Structure formats: structure tokens, C-alpha cells
Amino acid sequence: MARAGIRRSRAPSSTASRDSGTAWCPEPGAGRTATRDSPQPGCGDGVAGNQRPAPAGACVESGLPRGARSLSEPTQRPRIGIVGSAGAYGRWLRAFFETRMGLEVIGHDPADPAATGEDALLEQADVLLFSAPIRRTPELIERYVRLSAGREAGRLWLDVTSVKAAPVAAMLRSQAEVAGLHPMAAPPKSPTLKGRVLVVCEARLSSWRPWLESLLAALEAECVRATPERHDRAMALVQAMVHASHLAQAGVLREQAGLVGPLAALMPLRSASFEMDAAVAARILSLNPAIYEDIQFGNPHAPEALRALAAQLARMATLVGQGDDVARAGFRAEFLDANRDAWGEQALALGNYTYERIGYLLADLSDTHTLGVHLPEDRPGSLRSLLHVFERRGVNIASLHSSRTQAGELHFRLGFSAGTPAGQLADAVAELAQTGIGRVLPD
Ligand SMILES: NC(=O)c1ccc[n+]([C@@H]2O[C@H](COP(=O)([O-])OP(=O)(O)OC[C@H]3O[C@@H](n4cnc5c(N)ncnc54)[C@H](O)[C@@H]3O)[C@@H](O)[C@H]2O)c1
Ligand SMILES: O=C(O)C(=O)C[C@]1(C(=O)O)C=C[C@@H](O)C=C1
Fold first, then answer.
1. Which of 165, 341, 382, 413 might form a disulfide with 228, Cβ 3.0–4.6 angstroms?
2. What is the per-residue burial (b if ≥16 Cβ within 10 Å, else e) of 77-102?
3. How many distinct structural domains can be found in the chain?
């Protein structure tokens, strides 16, 4: 009964995208050799703090005995079901599963009338992934547990919610294998999560472990294992505190705009720190407001983090307001010396170096003597051909960065020495257009 609808194998689809998917072909029981202790491509053991990886076959906080197996083997090419398929991450994930893993994706979303119905999704999806509003997700998962009524046994349930304890606990009330994921970035314009962190909460895994590892490898993220509880405690600082402090800065800037002018009037007076903080605030204010609201109100540890932040700021304001030598000594001891000691030399050196590198990048980005060039040919040697066009004209390239345009197109941004003759640059641009080596992008 519980196994109805589980397809152990499926004939490969005739579409090219399915055929070009990652080739994960488990032998029955092959998953027993893949462990969280063994390094996986793209997934280092980045366990932080007190969370150690469990040995093969063990289940983190699931109560499932070591060595327990799920009711059935996973299919080689699972059909993915996304709950919240019309949302920002739902759409990104669909594209990822289809194009990078060659898998069939179905989804349900009230915002998409053409989407699959909930019951059909539960019936047909081998892997069910929740990508719904944070606030609604635990109750939504609980409803799916009731609707599924045991059909989920032997399948895999995942979520990408920004808080983890409640969604993972809700998924564990099902009979499915369970892992919680949290990509530490908004859906990127790139096809994978390369260079981004992905928190992985392994909750109840046995037969699906090898497939999950193949998913993580395909995502190319820097995977970090954590329990849901540790995740939420960490995110109260990494997200709730950081978002709150930048929103508070934006509030102070708004309140003081009458005295010093709006943000645009302050930007010409910027430091690199101010520019970075303003960029963070702008990012938060540009994305989905529900995410930022729900991270504050949905992470059970957020209020504690905000109260601690407010207390630190209040103490600093008291000392600065007091203004005498005693207050200065207190400021130095509490806010400079104590924090410097707590962080230690290595963390300070690393952070300081990161700051300098970002500072140079910001300086290069503010340079107006630049060209953004898209290289249509993604092949070895195409960058060299581009540089050669400038070299032949004696044009010195002072800086070179690869980045993405706002539309997500990969490009190189070339900065030139101040004295570069405009005619030489114009000639180079004309050659790029003529030869098709590169397409110059509008500013
Ligand atoms: N956007 C980010 O920066 C980001 C980053 C990491 C993780 N996440 C997580 O991804 C999840 C989705 O976020 P998003 O940015 O895609 O939000 P979103 O608002 O763009 O998408 C959520 C989707 O869920 C749908 N939905 C609402 N109720 C539903 C229901 N009952 N059944 C099915 N679908 C329903 C909505 O119609 C919407 O399309 C959240 O849990 C969020 O925490 C988001
Ligand atoms: O804007 C980004 O790319 C983010 O990193 C978004 C961000 C964050 O600011 O912490 C917001 C919500 C998600 O849970 C993960 C990351």
C-alpha cells in the first residue's frame, strides 16, 4: 500500500535534456559506501562548531536506528516535484534539475493555474522539494504528510526554507527520507550554486543518500552540514542580525536625510565600508520583502540576537554620549580590545584582507574609463584574442574583472589607464565588432 506509485526504474525519456543528465546509476545498496565522512565532489565537510558528521548509515537527529533502510530503493532518474514551483527558487530549481541533471520536473503552485495538482504531485514525484513562503511551510508540509498518507515511504523529501527546525521536524513526521537544504544566496543568475554556501541538514537518509550526494555535487555549492537547531541559531546571527542592522542603518539614513541629504548626496562622500553597507541594505530592500520579514519572525532565535545587538549599540551610545576619558577607556576595552582578542589574529588578518580586496574591486568598479565586453565564444583562447586586440594598439589594460550584467550575462570588465587615447580605444572596439571576438556592452 505504502509503496504504490513508486517507480523503481523508468525508461529514459526521449528528450535530449534527460539524456544529458548526470549519470548516477546505483547498484542496489550502492549507497552504503557513500558516507558523510568521505569527501564528495563539491561538498566539503564544512561542519562548524559542535556538529560532527555521523558515520555511514547513521541518521542525524532522526531517531532512525543506525543501518536502517528505507522501504524501497530510489529510482535512478527520479521525477522531481516542487511545491512552490512558480516562485523565485522554484523556477531556478526547475531549470537546474531539467538542464543540469536532465530530470523531469513537475510542480504545484497556486500562482500557476497550469501546475500539477497536489495529489498528482504526491503520487508522481519521487523527490518532493518544498520551496514555499517561510511562514507557511511547516503547516504546508504537515498538510502534505496528511494528504500523502504513507505514499511517501521510500521517497525523498527536501526543502530549501531559510529556517530549518520547524520544516525539517514537519518533514520527519512523514515516512519519507528527509534532508533540509538552505542555499545561502538568492537564486543566482548562474546555472549552479558554485561559489555559494549550501547548508545541508541530513535528517533521515538511507537509500537516497547517494542520490542526494549526486544532487549536491551537481549544485557545485560549498556544502556545510549542520543540525536544524544549529542552523537556526547560526542564522539568527548570519541573517537576522545582519539584515536587522542594515535595515536600522537605512532607517537612520532616512531619518537624517533632512539634515545631510538623501543617500545619493552621501555617496560622493563614501568610504568603502559605507558603500558596502549601503549595497547590503539596497540588496535587502530590492528582494522579496516576505523573506526578510519571515527570517526575523520565523527564526525562533532572532529576537535574542536583535536584543543583544540593541544592547551593544545602547552601551556604545551611552559611552560615546558620556564623552569623558573614562568612557573612552571603556569604549576601547569593550568594543575594540575585547573584540580583537575574541576574533584572534588569523580571523582579523583574513577579514582585513577580504576588505582590502573588495575595496580594490569597488575602486575599479567606480572607474569610468572602462569597457564591458561579452565573449560570445566560450572556449580556451577567446580571452587571449580579446586582449590581443588591445595589445596590438598599445592600449594598456589596468584592470580586468569577470562578472555578470544585471541581466545575468557573463562579461569581462576592462579598465584602462587614464591617458589612453580615445581613438585607439575606438579602433579596438570597432575591431571587436567586426571580428565578432567580443560584444561591447552598454554601461
Ligand atoms: N529568495 C531567496 O533569497 C531565498 C534564498 C534561500 C532560500 N530561500 C527559500 O526558498 C523558499 C521560496 O522562496 P522564494 O524566494 O522562491 O519565494 P517566492 O515567494 O518567490 O516563492 C514562493 C512560492 O510559493 C508559492 N506558494 C504559496 N503557497 C503555496 C502552497 N500552499 N502550495 C504551493 N506553493 C505555494 C507562492 O505562490 C510562490 O510562488 C523560501 O522557503 C525561502 O526561505 C529563498
Ligand atoms: O541576496 C542574497 O543573495 C542573499 O544572500 C539572500 C539571503 C541573505 O541575505 O541572507 C536571504 C535569504 C536566504 O535565506 C539566503 C540568503
1. 165
2. bbbbbbbbbbbebbbbbbebbbebbb
3. 3
